[in-house]
Amino acid sequence: MVGDDVELVDLQDAYTATKFAVTSATEAWRQEYTTRNVRFSVIEPGRTESELFDQKEGAAEGFTSMFGEVEALHAEDVAEAAAFIVTSPRRVAVNEIVIRPTDQP
User: Secretion signal: which residues (predicted)?
Assistant: First the structure.
């Protein structure tokens, strides 16, 4: 049967599509629920020290080959972005935060 011998494709495409889908869904929910005093935000971190790169062999090396050596963000850096969102006054809507290491292209 066609497809039985298909190997798993690189998950980068699925990862990128999923990130876009989350951002789009969040914006749709923001527009739908804004009159109910519900706020939605997306935090898009760049390279962050985490177990993510341990899950797939060669992931860290793949990142380095694409972007070079990068001093990764710490979990606390992303947590500070989240704290900024939730402690902002009600009149402030932080829809999206992109946070990357300084040396990440």
Answer: none
